[in-house]
Amino acid sequence: MDAYKELAGCYDRLTNDVDYPAVVDFYFGILQREGVHPKTAVDLACGTGSVSVLLAQRGIKVTGVDMSEDMLTAAWDKASCMENPPMFVRQSLQQLRLPKGVDLAVCALDSLDYITDPEDCAEAIRRVYKVLNPGGIFIFDVNTPEKLRAMDGQVFLDEDDDVYCVWRGDFDEDTNICSYGIDLFRRQGNVWHRSFEEHQEYAYSEAQLRQFLREAGFNRIRVYADRSFAAPQPGEQRIYFSARKGIVK
Questions:
Q1: Which of 74, 63, 82 is nearest to 11 (CA)?
Q2: Rounded distance, CA 181 to CA 216, Å?
Q3: What is the pLDDT of residues 162-216, one digit of tens each?
Q4: Of 53, 87, 91, 201, whose CA is between 20 and 30 Å from 102?
C-alpha cells in the first residue's frame, strides 16, 4: 500500500513547521564551499515538491522523483503555474534513471531512511552516482540511530482545525527499524474520516552511509551537524552528507 496515500492530501499542513527555505539555503552553503554551480538537479523522494520548487525558483532545471503518485499530484499542483516548473517522475530510488545527467542530487527529510533494506539503500546511492555529471554533488540528510531509538514508545500529535494526526513509535533492535503507525482523522463536512498508515525507517549509521558512498564511487565525503558546518556531536538528531563524483582533492 502507498504509505502516503491518505497523508498526501494534508502533508504540507502537518509539516508546516519544516523550514524548507533554510534547508535549501544550507544546500547552497555547501555548494558554495564546494565551488559547484548547478544548472540541473534531481530532488529525490521529492514528496509534495517543496524543495523542488525552491530549487527551481533559483533558476535550476529540476526533476522531482517520488514513489507516491498522490504526493506527486500534490507536487504538480504546487508547481504548475511556475515559469520554470520542475518535472515530476514516479520512480523508486533503487531504479532511478534519468534521460540526462544532472549537476546536483538532493534528498531531504531523512528520506533515505525509508529504504529499510541496506542493500537497496546501497543500490539507490549507486543509482544517484550514475545520474550525476562528472564533478556533480549529492547532498542528503538522515535521522541518526540515536533519534530513531529514542522514538520507541513515544506518542506524537499534529493537528489543525480539519486534521488530527497521532502516531506512535516502535524501535526494533533486531531489525534496526523504527516503525510508526499513524492514525489520521480528516474532517469532511460534519464527519471525520479515519485512516491508518504505517511508516518505517532504518537506522543507518554514519559509517554505513560513508561505506555505501565510497563503494558507489563517491569521494570528498563530508558529514555535517543539522544545517551546520560543524561536525556532528554525540546525541545529534539529524546529520547531513555531501559527496562528490570525480573530485579527488
A1: 74
A2: 33
A3: 999 999 999 999 999 999 999 999 988 989 999 999 999 999 999 999 999 999 9
A4: 201
Q: Helix 50-57 crosses helix 20-34 at what angle (to 10 degrees)? A: 50
What is the pairing mode between strands 219-224 and 191-202?
unpaired
CATH topology of domain 147-201: N-terminal domain of TfIIb (2.20.25)
The domain made up of 7-143+204-244 is a member of CATH 3.50.50.60: no
- Alpha-carbon dihedral angle through residues 69, 115, 223, 34, given to the nearest 10 degrees: -40
pLDDT digits (tens, 9 = 90+) for 129-157: 999 999 999 999 999 999 999 999 999 99
Taking the domains of the chain in order of start, what are their residue ranges? 7-143+204-244, 147-201
The C-alpha cell of 25 is what?
A: 539555503
pLDDT attached to residue 159:
85
- Contact (Cβ atoms closer than 8 angstroms) between residue 225 and residue 236: yes
Q: Give me the amino acid identity at 164.
A: Y
Q: What is the pTM of this model?
A: 0.95
